[in-house]
Amino acid sequence: MPNRRFADGEVVMGRWPGSVLYYEVQVTSYDDVSQLYIVKYKDGTELALRDSDIRTQSSFKPRKSQSSSSSPSRRSTSRSRSRSPGRPAKGRRRSSSQSRENKDDKKKTVPETNLPILVLGFFKPSENNTRSYNGEPDSTEVNDTSCIISEQKLKPDLEIERVLEQYSLRPRKEEKKKEETYSEKNILEPVKTIEKPSSKTKELEFGGRIGTFMMMLFLPATVLYLLLLCKQDDPSLMNFPPPLPALESLWEPRVFGVFLLWFFLQALFYLLPVGKVVEGLPLSNGRKLQYRINGFYAFVLTAAIIGTLLYFQFELHYLYDHFMQFAVSAAAFSMVLSIYLYIRSLKAPEEELAPGGNSGYFVYDFFTGHELNPRIGSFDLKYFCELRPGLIGWVVINLAMLLAEMKIHNQSMPSLSMLLVNSFQLLYVVDALWNEEAILTTMDITHDGFGFMLAFGDLVWVPFVYSLQAFYLVGHPTAISWPVAAAITVLNGIGYYIFRSANSQKNHFRRNPADPKLAYLKFIPTATGKGLLVTGWWGFVRHPNYLGDIIMALAWSLPCGFNHILPYFYVIYFICLLVHREARDEHHCKQKYGLAWERYCQRVPYRIFPYIY
Description:
One of its GO terms (biological process) is cholesterol biosynthetic process. By secondary structure, the chain is an alpha+beta fold.
């Protein structure tokens, strides 16, 4: 472990992350594990800096004037009119020895230049540290006396190169050679650097290889068990195992054909040239993928087709009659899709592999997803499955359950409970499609690969488990009063408000932290250049969007009454899922932001539930 160079309380010069500017800072502490110094700027901003980003104040002292010891020729040059430092005075002849000495001096000057760098693109930390982009402060003041500009003495970077070219401090014949040399050796460091992720996944989630293998068996079995239980007169969890149907009754080619038709119909809607095209977040190689935002248009077209089918007396409750077969068909298709995804990922470049699905273990990578963004041309398979077939299919299934309830119970109108479930979940789906662009900043898109976990989750778990309440109400109708319905509606509205406003704050801040509309938000700067919000919903709990999710999930289950716990499986599952995601996010953020995340946790102590957890 390297020795510590700076003591607590020592005043040094710290480099602002992402720039070449150094400011006077005071060392407050040192972390032996991460080997980072916690320094405090004059405006109160605290950052974690590496040892290489800190210098002593003595290294910034200006050199003494050399005019008194300059040669006669240099004194005459200084008295002449302003000219480039490398240009000799006109009319003065030099000896051959002086020319050779000056030529050698100029060669030595190139790697040891002490010219100050004026970088207009970087500013000093603002006193009101409320907005930032990639760690760069807002203030445009570059003449502040508290700002000291670094004197580079080694390999010149981009700004030094410009100064050297302006003042001709080296022979012109060598300029191109030097430029090519620096380009080949990658000496020029860009302002915004993107760290390349490690080639192999070191930390395995979900119980590693054994855990992921068991989940590939457990997840389909869970879906089958829940659907079989809902069909029973007494859907108690204690009735285990439920009566199992004959295996041949679980598969029907016609149902599988209908599922394929649905999948490729949504794929056709995805390819329509409607909606805007946006860029996703930068990948590990700095490249940004483009996505067409037209999910809401696909939903409208689907609604038009469903309405047309109903107008021509199409029996949509066919979905209810063959619900089990549809679930098996979707599971079979997701498995085939997962196999295709893994085979094609074996030929993908290293930089296109998922950081969490590149362990080298077949079962683990197959489950979590080996390739980050598998595409067929411009068709992004993961992005398409994330919102289209499963999420829109969820709404269609709920509608089929509503019609099935009316037919089975000879009702002219659906029950109030069924209306609430359909309305609440329709709002959730429409919101996701309307705010489709926000999904580009989620971990599903930016971090997780596309494998069995997401394929099964998007195509099977979402449409067939999330519709569990509507499926339950068909066979077990529950009557509720209007006051109870009003109270449940208010609860769902509170959850939705928290969910949407928290996600909007996060997404807008990630996209454009300099937006004047976000000026009221405060944040903790990090060494990565990003900020951690400490006001708004994100100053209330660390994951307010998860809190809104859980409140809405409870509101979706309450119309089913309290006769059985089965409708509340979704709530229990959702709490377990979000607690797992929260722990995963905590671990990821702690690794990414280091001590800044610890400061954030101290300021925002509650994770999901205020004053509880």
